[in-house]
Amino acid sequence: MAGANKVAKNSFLYTVANMVTKASTFLLLFIYTNPNFLSTEDYGRVNLLTSFTNIAVLLVNLSLPYALIRFYAEYKFDKEKCKKFFGTIMTFMLVFGSAVVALMIIFRNPISQLLFKGIEIYPPVICTLLTLVFNALYQMYQSILQAKQQGGKFAKNSLLFFFFHVGLNVILLIFGRGVYLFGFELGGLNGMMLSLFLSNFAFAVYGIIDMLRHDMMSFRVDKEMLSTALKYSAPLLPHNIANNMASYISKHFLNAAGKAFENGIYSVSMQFSSVIEIVQSSIHLAFRPWFNDKMKLGEEGKKEIVDLASVAFRISAIVCLGVALFSQEVVMLLSEDYYDAWKYVPVIAVAHAVKFVYFTHTFGIMYDIKQSKKMFFCSGSAIIVNFTMSYILTEMGKYTMLAAAICFLVSRSTAALVSVIICRRNDIIKYNIKEMFGKILLVAAFSVAGLVPVNVLYVGLENEIELFSLTFFINIAFKLAVFAIGVVFIIGRKRNEILSLIKGIIKKKIK
To answer: Pick from 259, 261, 250, 248: which is nearest to 53 by CA?
Structure first.
């Protein structure tokens, strides 16, 4: 139970950090979607570039954060080995990352033509490429804190990074308009990508200094440790790249099809649905190191994992349902250009419910060193399905925002299915699949039940509900009732376990 409490405590810390950043991000949408500061087209371009960053940084870090967390459990009782291991990873990352980014800058023209059609190379694309190496170093530093289960420090750094980045964004968006440096305007798209680079640079340097100050690393490379880490992480690279391409593919095809305006709207849909990741990512961050410890206990440890995952999945499903139902009201507060964004959130929310199934199973696959090489089959199959569907629909001229959301859902379902098959065939760990599938169906069913009556049957899907009108409040009241009933069905017989987990989190926080 002490292990579960540790997960609860760290989940709480990660959740607080994520909640603050996500909540603030929603407030910032009023600035980011304001046409006086950033056009709908440029908002779509910003999201395309940042999505690329999330993928390309994996080419720089070679999935070593996963190896770091996996092998820290082997070295954590020997301070000198830990210091050598951390130093080896960080030093290699700095050298290798710089080489990869240098090559990307050299070949910036073909890369830009292929991936960033319609976006100027100088300075937004260049800033994006320079960001990669520093983003990789900062992520590695945060992974070290995660491995050591220092949730408080991890959360503090996340918040500081976020507010530093946001502060630069706001300053450049508001005051950078009409201000030029070396012939380039500091506002708009240029300012957003410049602030991303400066933020990652500053916090990567801070992370290295902090580790050196606490004698956690030194600039050296142990070939044996590096070889062991790379043998584990390298096979995960295709998987991680494919996994992060899920949201990038839709933005790429919309941008390539000349639908920059629609790309901006769809980016808002993805932004709203990312609220789900507040809970999911927090659970995953705390769950992963605890998962590795429990797997060492054999069947007894696996039972604890399955029980806790069942409770966590229900919490995730409730959040998915809430986002699917109530994103509409928040979207209505933005610029009228983005009103249609809420229509695609329910599909994406169901995809995130499926995503939880995928991640819980991949923890087991990544733990089993022999089976970890099969991770690419999970994400790779999903990307092939997503890319193929998107390409065919684009060629048919039918690739719309709804098509993008459906392709995203199908790809997530494919990844989840393959991960379940691998876990079951190799007897790694067996979650209650029927239970998970049933909860996903409940999320979908109650999303339809809450959205169709007023928006489709009464108002009409093509019509907009007037903000703060009688229909607006009737719609909210109806959805609240549907949400309450849905929560009861999703919780099922796990009410006491969920309450116990929440109480444990609160008690830990009070202490």
So the answer is: 248
Long-range contacts of 96-102 (CB under 8 A, 24+ apart): 96/60, 96/62, 97/60, 97/61, 97/132, 97/133, 97/136, 97/137, 98/133, 100/59, 100/60, 100/132, 100/133, 101/60, 101/129, 101/130, 101/132, 101/133
pLDDT digits (tens, 9 = 90+) for 308-346: 889 889 989 999 999 999 999 988 888 888 889 999 999
Place of tokens 């903000």: 467
Residue 320 and residue 338: Cα distance in Å, rounded? 21
- Enumerate residues 6+ apart whose C-beta is below 8 A from 498: 311, 314, 315, 491
Burial class (CB in 10 A: 0-12, 13-18, 19+), 373: middle
Query: In whole angstroms, how large is the CA radius of gyration of the chain?
Result: 23
The answer to whether residue 75 scores a pLDDT higher than 80 is: yes
pTM, entire model: 0.76
**What's the CA gap between 511 and 504, in Å, rounded?**
11
Element (H, E) at 269: helix 260-273
Cis before residue 123, ω within 30 degrees of 0?
yes
Q: Are strands 184-185 and 180-181 parallel, antiparallel or unpaired?
A: antiparallel
Annotate 283-295 with b (16+ C-beta within 10 A) or e (fewer): bbbbbbbbbbebb
Distances (CA, A) of 476 to 326, 451, 467, 470, 482: 8, 10, 11, 10, 10
What was the pLDDT predicted at 342?
Answer: 93
Q: Which helix (H) or strand (E) covers residue 185, if one does?
A: strand 184-185
Closest CA to 416 of 262, 288, 243, 275: 243
